[in-house]
Write a structure and sequence with these properties.
By secondary structure, the chain is mainly beta. The radius of gyration is 19 Å and the shape is globular. The protein contains three helices and 24 strands. The chain has two domains: 27-180, Jelly Rolls (Sandwich), CATH 2.60.120; 188-333, no CATH class.
C-alpha cells in the first residue's frame, strides 16, 4: 500500500518502563539483526539488548562472511543479506534511500511504500527503483533481479521501459527480462527471510497492544518499534492493517483488538524462563536461526498471549517451511492460499 511519508523522530521514555528503549529512526539503514560473521565499516557487528541496532552512515558498507544480516530501511521495508554479501548505503535519507549491491545475494521485502519516499537499488551499473510492495532479490553472480512478488519498471539498453512482474528474471547487464522462474519455490536463504518476516509479525502483536495502552494521546503514528519482550524490532503500520508480501499481518494500536487476548498472570517466574542474552547461532543448512530472536526464548512469546502471536503469524506460517520452500499459507488466517 502507498501512503504519505511522515518525518520520523526518536521516542523518549514512555509510561510503560519496558518500552523505554523504543526507537523510531529518522533514517534508513539500521543494522538490527545478525547471525555469524558480519562487519560494518570493517569492524565486527555486535548487537546487544542495550544496543539493539547500529545506524549506517552514507557510504558505509555492511558485509557478511559466514553469516547473514538484516537492515531496516524506510518504514515497512527490510533488506536481508545472505552469506558472502556486501552492500553500500549510498543515501540513508527516507525521501531518497539508495543502495548498491557490491557482491552476493540480497532480498528486499517491501510491505509498505510511501508517497514522497524513494528506494533505489544499484547493481551492475544499473539502477532499479522499487515503487510497489513485494519481494525483490538481487544477485551479483550472475547480475540479475528476481521478482517473487510485486512489480518493477526499469529502462532497458534500447531505451524502452521493461516491466518485470512476479516470476520474472531481469538481466541487469542490459535491463531485459532474461527468463522466468517459479516464484513459489525458495532456497535456504529465501526460507530464512520468510521466517524472519514471521518473527517481525509475531512481535508486532504485543508491540501494537502495548502502544495502544501507552501511546494514545502521544501522537504516535507508526514505524519501526523495538519490542523488549522479543528482543527485536517490529513494524507498526501508519494506518489500518497491512499484509506483508510473505503473507503475515501487521496491526496498528487501533486494529490490534481483532486478535489480541490479555496475557496470563506473570506472577510465576518460570513463565519468563529462558530470558537472557543468547546470541543467535548460524547454520546455513537450516536456513534460519537455531536459537530464535535475540535475548528471549519461545517461553516469553507464549506468556504474552499465545493465541495473539499465532493469529498474527499463521497467515504465513506455511510459507518458507519445509525443504521445498513452498509458500502455501492459510487464506482464512491471512496467507494467500497457493
Amino acid at each position: 500500500m502507498k501512503r504519505t511519508l511522515f518525518a520520523l523522530t526518536a521516542l523518549g521514555a514512555l509510561a510503560f518502563p519496558a518500552l523505554a528503549q523504543n526507537v523510531v529512526s529518522a533514517r534508513a539503514g539500521l543494522v538490527n539483526y545478525t547471525e555469524g560473521a558480519v562487519t560494518l565499516r570493517e569492524s565486527p557487528v555486535s548487537l546487544t539488548t542495550k544496543q539493539p541496532y547500529i545506524e549506517m552512515k552514507d557510504g558505509d558498507v555492511v558485509q557478511t562472511a559466514r553469516g547473514r544480516s538484516e537492515v531496516l530501511l524506510s518504514p515497512g521495508t527490510i533488506m536481508r543479506l545472505a552469506e558472502d554479501t556486501s552492500v553500500r548505503l549510498l543515501s540513508g535519507s527516507l525521501t531518497d534511500t539508495r543502495l548498491e549491491v557490491l557482491e552476493g545475494d540480497v532480498l528486499i521485502e517491501a510491505a509498505e511504500i510511501f508517497e514522497g519516499g524513494r528506494l533505489v537499488v544499484k547493481l551492475a551499473d544499473r539502477e532499479v527503483e522499487i515503487t510497489k510492495t513485494g519481494i525483490y532479490r538481487f544477485t551479483t553472480d550472475p547480475a540479475e533481479l528476481r521478482v517473487y512478488e510485486g512489480r518493477v519498471e526499469l529502462p532497458a539498453a534500447n531505451g524502452k521501459a521493461v516491466t518485470a512482474k512476479k516470476g520474472s528474471v531481469v538481466a541487469m547487464s542490459n535491463g531485459l527480462i532474461a527468463g522466468k522462474f517459479d516464484a513459489d519455490l525458495g532456497d535456504t536463504f529465501y526460507r530464512w527471510a520468510s521466517r524472519r518476516s514471521s518473527y517481525v509479525a509475531t512481535a508486532n502483536v504485543s508491540a501494537a497492544q502495548m502502544a495502544k495502552d501507552n501511546l494514545f494521546g502521544f501522537g504516535f503514528r507508526g514505524g519501526w518499534l523495538y519490542n523488549p519482550y522479543f528482543g527485536m524490532f517490529t513494524y507498526i503500520p501508519y494506518n489500518g492493517m497491512i499484509m506483508s508480501p510473505f503473507g503475515y499481518r501487521y496491526y496498528t494500536p487501533r486494529t490490534i483488538y481483532a486478535v489480541y487476548t490479555p496475557p496470563p498472570s506473570m506472577g510465576n517466574s518460570a513463565a519468563m524462563g529462558g530470558m537472557g542474552n543468547r546470541m543467535p547461532s548460524y547454520n546455513s543448512d537450516y536456513g534460519y536461526s537455531t536459537v530464535g530472536v535475540r535475548g528471549v526464548s519461545s517461553a516469553p512469546a507464549a506468556s504474552m498471549g499465545a493465541s495473539a502471536p499465532a493469529a498474527a503469524a499463521s497467515g504465513g506460517a506455511a510459507r518458507g517451511a519445509g525443504d521445498g520452500g513452498g509458500r502455501g499459507g492459510s487464506a482464512s488466517a491471512g496467507g494467500r492460499a497457493q
